From TrEMBL:
<feature type="transmembrane region" description="Helical">
    <location>
        <begin position="307"/>
        <end position="327"/>
    </location>
</feature>
<feature type="region of interest" description="Disordered">
    <location>
        <begin position="112"/>
        <end position="134"/>
    </location>
</feature>
<keyword id="KW-0812">Transmembrane</keyword>
<dbReference type="GO" id="GO:0016020">
    <property type="term" value="C:membrane"/>
</dbReference>
<feature type="transmembrane region" description="Helical">
    <location>
        <begin position="63"/>
        <end position="82"/>
    </location>
</feature>
<comment type="similarity">
    <text>Belongs to the wax synthase family.</text>
</comment>
<keyword id="KW-0443">Lipid metabolism</keyword>
<dbReference type="GO" id="GO:0006629">
    <property type="term" value="P:lipid metabolic process"/>
</dbReference>
<feature type="transmembrane region" description="Helical">
    <location>
        <begin position="245"/>
        <end position="269"/>
    </location>
</feature>
<dbReference type="InterPro" id="IPR044851">
    <property type="entry name" value="Wax_synthase"/>
</dbReference>
<dbReference type="InterPro" id="IPR032805">
    <property type="entry name" value="Wax_synthase_dom"/>
</dbReference>
<dbReference type="InterPro" id="IPR017088">
    <property type="entry name" value="Wax_synthase_Magnoliopsida"/>
</dbReference>
<dbReference type="Pfam" id="PF13813">
    <property type="entry name" value="MBOAT_2"/>
</dbReference>
<keyword id="KW-0808">Transferase</keyword>
<feature type="compositionally biased region" description="Polar residues">
    <location>
        <begin position="116"/>
        <end position="134"/>
    </location>
</feature>
<feature type="transmembrane region" description="Helical">
    <location>
        <begin position="7"/>
        <end position="26"/>
    </location>
</feature>
<keyword id="KW-0472">Membrane</keyword>
């Protein structure tokens, strides 16, 4: 484990140095192909660096941050688009600000237009954003506790029905991803003093696939795929299909790219050749979401399922197809067992630290 932590530190030192190169040199190169070429060495580094890590909890998030989010942000940056270009337009933003935006799954909350209803409302209650962020931060310890309870439950998995275990895996996925992303966001908010967009928006309250994937689940991925995939494909499709139907191929293309990126992350976690189940999972979600959008256009608001029906159907569809296509590559290669084992080690280490602290306090008094 000591060597893994050393490799983790080295990976992130090199990553930060690479972003410093982008901040001090690349930003002065004219946008377009020339800037893109200057970023190719960084893309190469970000692709190979996570191969130095073999643990689930260090390697998984690092791969997600570097291979997916950071490279996609830099792709936009090469054409003067996206969050990195936005951050440079504000002269008060520092190198530290640029590094955080580049390497962490965060998005700065943008002020709405002064005349918009949203901004008028926030002007009447300027503390509303802080209150919402405070509520999310307050719920984080509860979610961490639930996650710890889940990992303790796995000790009794031999007594649990397989369907219950799959249900636990679905909850584990949601809680684990949200806790990891929220931790980075809290750190960035504390150091930079900026308001950030939420990374999740209560996905268990989704009433449709469009609502689940577009407005509630892992909004950092949604935010980076929209300008890199959805927007360009929609623009090209508009000329062929017209404005009304152009979003449909854009939706499917976005899910396809998401599936391929998940396939790549699975390779880093398993180090075995891809079997494409997770790609087909996202293609299926994309096709069904596009069909849902088309159906909504066809009925034009004349008919809608009540949320008490559409909500459970949506969650059941995502969960069942996830068990069918999303999890097999993970379970087949023992990644789930590795993750559970690492989590239990971390939990035991944390509890031992708490007990030592309690003993130390008692000794003082």
């Amino acid at each position: 484990m000591d060597s893994e932590i050393k490799n983790f530190i080295k990976v992130w030192i090199v990553s930060i140095a690479s972003i410093c190169y982008c901040y001090f040199l690349v930003k002065h190169i004219p946008k377009g192909l020339t800037r893109l070429i200057s970023l190719l060495p960084i893309f190469y580094l970000f692709i190979i660096l996570p191969l130095e890590l073999h643990s689930f909890h260090l390697g998984g998030p690092t791969t997600f941050y570097l291979v997916w989010l950071a490279i996609f942000k830099l792709l936009l940056f090469s054409f003067d688009l996206g969050p990195l270009s936005d951050s440079l337009t504000n002269p008060s933003n520092s190198l530290l600000h640029f590094i955080y935006i580049s390497l962490l799954p965060i998005k700065i909350k943008q002020d709405p237009h002064p005349k918009s209803p949203t901004n008028a409302k926030s002007n009447q209650d300027p503390s509303s954003n802080s209150a919402r962020n405070g509520q999310r931060s307050a719920f984080l310890p509860i979610k961490v506790l639930l996650l710890a309870m889940l990992f303790r439950t796995y000790n009794y998995r031999q007594y649990l029905h397989p369907y219950i275990i799959w249900g636990l895996y679905c909850c584990n996925l949601y809680l684990g991803v949200e806790v990891i992303l929220a931790t980075g966001a809290i750190l960035a908010r504390a150091i930079l003093g900026i308001e950030l967009e939420p990374q999740f928006n209560e996905p268990y309250l989704a009433t449709s696939l469009q609502d689940f994937w577009g407005r509630r689940w892992n909004l950092m991925v949604t935010g980076i795929l929209r300008p890199t995939v959805y927007g360009p494909v929609q623009g090209m499709s508009t000329r062929l299909l017209g404005r009304s139907w152009a979003p449909l191929p854009a939706v499917v293309a976005t899910f396809l790219v998401s599936g391929l990126m998940h396939e790549l992350i699975y390779f880093y976690l398993t180090r075995v050749s891809p079997t494409w189940e997770v790609t087909w999972f996202f293609v299926l979600q994309g096709v069904c979401t596009a069909a849902e959008v088309a159906a909504k256009k066809a009925v034009a608001g004349r008919w809608r399922l009540p949320w008490v029906v559409s909500g459970p159907i949506t969650l059941a569809f995502v969960a069942v197809t996830g068990v069918w296509l999303f999890f097999p590559q993970i379970t087949r290669n023992g990644v789930d067992q590795k993750a559970i084992g690492e989590s239990q080690i971390l939990f035991n280490f944390f509890m031992a630290g708490v007990q030592r602290t309690i003993s130390l306090v008692r000794g003082l008094f």
